[in-house]
Amino acid sequence: MKVSIWNLLLVLFFLSSCSENDEPQGIEETFWVYSYPINSMPGSMPVFSDFAISHEEEFNFDRSTWELIPQEIEGFIFKPTYLQRLLVSKKEDWNTGKVERKLVRVLAEEKDHYDLLEGTWKVIKYEGSDLPNEKFPKGQSVFILPGIFRIAGSSDGCNNITLEIQKVGPNKVLSFGTKMMTQKACLPDWHDTLPYPGLSNNFKREGNVLTFYSDTEGEVAVWEKLN
Fold first, then answer.
1. CB atoms < 10 A from the CB of 169, how many?
2. End-to-end Cα spacing for the chain
3. Selection from 85, 39, 35 nearest residue 61 by Cα
């Protein structure tokens, strides 16, 4: 009987030792990494940048679906302006709650061509006519913020209009998001002006010039970059 009790104590001690020393096992997860790092604490010094990740089959540009994680994925090399789909091993420390991720492999990469649109632009031609003209008595300008924001801004001649730009291919904006505008009381002589001439068409970037065109009608608009 004494031997049995002694053996039982040894077993209990062994199990207790194992439970204290065992490291938590990693689990695999798959997600997309956004093409630009995101400032998780705007205005902070130093700047804290995170990866924005999407767990869907295709990257979802709706920011409300993003999860922000630290830029700490062992073995992963971030490529700006590329959407990267990763398979990683994820492990959480039971004591500290810190999550560690390690790259298993890169599953896919897609070039994000949003950078072709960034900047402040002056519309110099629309539908074959130079600006300013009767349709654009004050001309037209468009600003497109850097990729961490993904927002375009312009005006209809009275109200300011912002437009979320989502997926951008090598020669066309493939999807847009939310459109918002101010609600000013416009003057009686207000002339309704197209805020983004040509933006929904195909485009070609050559230096500081963006040319928008239709496959059937040819050139639609020409923008010139100011900065």
1. 15
2. 88
3. 35
Per DSSP, helices labelled H in the chain are 2-21
Residue carrying the six token digits 């990683």: 88
CA dihedral 196, 200, 201, 203 (to 10 degrees): 70
pTM: 0.83
Residue 95's contacts (CB-CB under 8 Å, 6 or more residues apart) are none
pLDDT tens sequence across 92-137:
888 877 899 999 999 999 999 999 999 999 999 999 999 999 999 9
Per-residue tokens: 125: 């031609």
Residues 48, 70: Cα–Cα separation, whole Å: 9
Task: Kindly report the backbone phi and psi dihedral angles of residue 20, in degrees, each rounded to the nearest multiple of 5, phi listed first.
Answer: -75, -35
Q: Per residue in 163-181, pLDDT tens?
A: 999 999 999 999 999 999 9
Structure tokens at 139: 């001309």
Q: The tokens of 172 are what?
A: 């066309």
Residue 158 near residue 184 (C-beta atoms within 8 A)? yes
Residue 53: burial class (beta carbons within 10 Å; 0-12, 13-18, 19+)? buried
CATH number of 115-225: 2.40.128.270
